[in-house]
């Protein structure tokens, strides 16, 4: 028996017609249907459209409707896709947060033994079971704010045993979470050089110990690297991505967060699926990305912006307007992690994107749905409300979709539906 959501005041489909992310002018094309209707069955969307089309569809296909959800006065959007997070970690770093308030920078804290390395110490001491338990709680928070697909990175193990442990946690959570949440694993061994190791030795460990094991156990879809002064450079990225490619892993990058040291060149050379952060991205690099994206045959590189990091670290915001006007698809993500952005709430990121990145509501909606799905290679499965896709759907109790950024800091979500099943309703996770 099918599910019908009927008479929806505003159905935001974020539909995507030509197989490329919604970029340039189309970054604001949200496929809005007033008085919209959705039919879903067996976890998939069968129909999304007008009331007149609905009647025909039901009779032509002899659809039997079971559950009916009243959509009158409601807003419906695709489930949010958070395409950049570090949600599996142990410990916490509120002490560092206070150090920053007292005037220390993120980099100063890192070079005095805090930062990523302090989370690494906590992760190494934690069992897989503990990590699963704390991460599951976080995933429930993600769900309550509307995230139905989430990427998760390793990067707090920094040795073979612990990087594999983190990826196993992510994979187990993906298979076993009762919500059907899609959790996409990314290998970020090159997050930092572990204490007591030379970089050259660590690169060898990544390439010749970690990668073969991760590939044999099928633990990751993407390979990521933190390109930054005092972390990894272009040359290191070349070594890691060439090796990662042999195992079929697709590159993603943390780049241009504090210093611009050539990350976009690497992204272009190794056909990355996304470049993430970009707080200090140079005009020259925007042009290079635009040029690459415009060449026929190239899969477009999505720029994943993380304004929560700018807010939390009190640093520069990302050049969203320049990226959009250059035709580069923009996605938005939380970057949820204990050091540079401690929030699971993608809605607060949307608010920041509105005020600080000057993105419109429409651009933002595409950035947290279909474009983020593209940044994860999930565009044929989720990210928009279209026949054939997973029924990943949010219902809001608010007068218009523009309330998402206007009525900030509160959660107007009434229902979260994942693969056709209600997993969150009126403040309660089910
Ligand atoms: O995406 N920039 C590098 N990695 C994370 C921060 C990790 C941490 O501080 O624990 C980020 O901002
Ligand atoms: Fe990150």
What does this structure look like?
This protein has 430 residues and is α/β, with parallel strands linked by helices. The chain has two domains: 2-78 and 383-429, Urease, subunit C, domain 1; 80-374, Metal-dependent hydrolases (TIM Barrel, Alpha-Beta Barrel), CATH 3.20.20.140. The two termini are 21 Å apart. It is globular, with a radius of gyration of 21 Å. The strands form two sheets. Strands 1, 2, 3, 4, 5, 14, 15, 16 and 17 form a nine-stranded mixed beta sheet that branches. Strands 6-7-8-9-10-11-12-13 form an eight-stranded parallel beta sheet. Strand 2 and strand 3 (44-49) form a beta hairpin. It has helices at 51-60, 94-101, 106-111, 116-124, 128-144, 160-176, 199-216, 234-246, 263-269, 283-294, 307-313, 320-325, 346-355, 361-367, 370-375, 403-406, and strands spanning 2-12, 32-41, 44-49, 65-70, 75-78, 80-82, 147-153, 182-190, 222-227, 250-255, 274-277, 302-305, 330-332, 393-396, 413-418, 421-425, 428-429. Helix 6 (160-176) runs parallel beside helix 7. 51% of the residues are buried. The chain contains 16 helices and 17 strands. Residues 84, 86, 254, 335, 337 line the site of fe (iii) ion.
Topology, please?
Blueprint: E1 2-12, E2 32-41, E3 44-49, H1 51-60, E4 65-70, E5 75-78, E6 80-82, H2 94-101, H3 106-111, H4 116-124, H5 128-144, E7 147-153, H6 160-176, E8 182-190, H7 199-216, E9 222-227, H8 234-246, E10 250-255, H9 263-269, E11 274-277, H10 283-294, E12 302-305, H11 307-313, H12 320-325, E13 330-332, H13 346-355, H14 361-367, H15 370-375, E14 393-396, H16 403-406, E15 413-418, E16 421-425, E17 428-429
Parallel strand pairs: 1-4, 1-5, 6-7, 7-8, 8-9, 9-10, 10-11, 11-12, 12-13
Antiparallel strand pairs: 1-2, 2-3, 5-14, 14-15, 15-16, 16-17
Bound molecules: N-(iminomethyl)-L-glutamic acid and fe (iii) ion.
N-(iminomethyl)-L-glutamic acid binds at residues 86, 115-116, 119, 226, 254, 257, 309, 335, 337-340.
